[in-house]
UniProtKB/TrEMBL annotation:
It comes from Epidermidibacterium keratini. It holds the Pfam family Sel_put. This is Putative selenoprotein. It comes from the Bacteria. Residues 40-62 have a biased composition (Basic and acidic residues). InterPro entries: Sel_put.
């Protein structure tokens, strides 16, 4: 039994790209990007939990309102 994944079809590739794009526009990938940044720039620091990250992120947005609808 082979454990290698089947090659992605063009439709699958397109859908995955669209999902990645939409997640980045909506900011849903902010925690992943922050963890990558932390690992690159500050390897001695451990990342906060995802829950703590989002809490701090929301608090920062409330303190620094920028062109948001809500």
């Amino acid at each position: 039994m082979s454990t290698t994944p089947a090659p992605a079809t063009p439709i699958t590739t397109l859908v995955r790209g669209a999902v990645r794009y939409l997640r980045s526009i909506m900011g849903a990938d902010a925690y992943e990007r922050y963890c990558e940044h932390l690992a690159r720039r500050h390897p001695d620091q451990s990342p906060p939990s995802e829950r703590d990250f989002w809490r701090e992120h929301q608090d920062w947005q409330d303190r620094n309102p920028q062109g948001r609808c809500c």
